[in-house]
Amino acid sequence: MASNVLTPILGVFLLVLAVLYQTHFSTSIWAFAGLGRSLDLNLTSRAASQCQSYPELGACEDGWMHEDSGLLYLACSSIEGRRNWLPTMDRLNAAKRPTTDAVYVVDTRGSGSFASRVNKIQPTNFDGINGDATLNLHGIAVLEVASKPTPSEGDDLVMDASYTPPTLYLYLNNHRPPMDPSTGKLLNAAKVGANSTVEIFKTTLGDKKMEHVRTYTSEHIHTPNRVAPISPDSFLWTNDHAVKVGLRRLMSYVSNDGSVGYCGPSGCKIVADKLGYPNGIVASAKPNQFWVPAMREGKMKLFEWQPKDQSLVL
């Protein structure tokens, strides 16, 4: 008798699973697991034989290249630190978070050893956590405000005494640990999540210092993945999850609850939602257009920014 009752229930359960797989899980499994992709072992072997190890650049999430000069800006951490503290991957051991994260600039066209062409950029006017000036970096985006005159198309950049380097605004994802404001002690990040912000720094091309301009913090900046600058004081960013911790966060891997937000002088807001794990955002070659990879959906989505009403249109 029990078997007769369980059989239709089991059938309905399997049917529901099949429907969910086709509508939700299949794309997630194939996109996240990389199923169906091929690996060129010969290419991997050749690349490994030509690589040089540089420990300070061991966990660089993102980079930006100044094409005229060949200067490469990187937001870097430590591999061991990332194993303990990387909120976007649910690694929330704040007590063992890295304390040496930094922005580096690499001269990719210079002469001499690789080490001689790597410089750490020192932040100024930045307090960090409890005055320790530390950053917990996860990505970098850069806005260049060009000097005049600029090189003509096809001309080489000559960085001599007459050259005025452009101003660069660096936008950094900073996954700060949660802290009790009254005691300065760490809170349980597994329960409350990270206290993430977007930090804006100002520098000039090739300088070894960057001046802190502003910290953007908002209830809408809850799981920032990457920033795309619009102006020196405004930007778009992606939240790869809907919440910082909890069951709903786990459901983000099979549901479309990521978002794109906008921050400007007057504050921050969400301008696009229902995105399947938006793992970044980058400006298109065309003005006011931005690409967003929706990983869970296996799609690249093109949005257009509307400056007049500060909205984003798919």
Topology at a glance:
Layout: H1 2-33, H2 41-50, E1 59-66, E2 71-77, H3 79-84, E3 85-86, E4 91-92, E5 102-107, E6 118-124, E7 137-145, E8 167-176, H4 189-192, E9 195-204, E10 209-216, E11 224-231, E12 234-239, H5 247-251, E13 258-264, E14 267-275, E15 282-283, E16 289-294, E17 299-306, E18 311-313
Parallel strand pairs: 6-10
Antiparallel strand pairs: 1-2, 2-5, 3-4, 5-6, 7-8, 8-9, 9-10, 11-12, 12-13, 13-14, 15-16, 16-17, 17-18
What does this entry show, briefly?
InterPro entries: 6-blade_b-propeller_TolB-like, Serum_paraoxonase/arylesterase. This protein is an alpha+beta fold. The protein is 18% helix and 38% strand.
Description:
The protein is α+β, with helices and mostly antiparallel strands and 314 residues long. The chain folds into two domains: 51-217; 233-314, no CATH class. Helix content is 18%, strand content 38%. It contains five helices and 18 strands. The strands form four sheets. Strands 1-2-5-6-10-9-8-7 form an eight-stranded mixed β-sheet. A four-stranded antiparallel β-sheet has the order 11-12-13-14, with no helix packed on it. Strand 17 (299-306) and strand 18 (311-313) form a beta hairpin. The chain starts with a helix and ends with a strand. 29% of the residues are buried. InterPro entries: 6-blade_b-propeller_TolB-like, Serum_paraoxonase/arylesterase. It comes from Tilletia indica. This is SMP-30/Gluconolactonase/LRE-like region domain-containing protein.
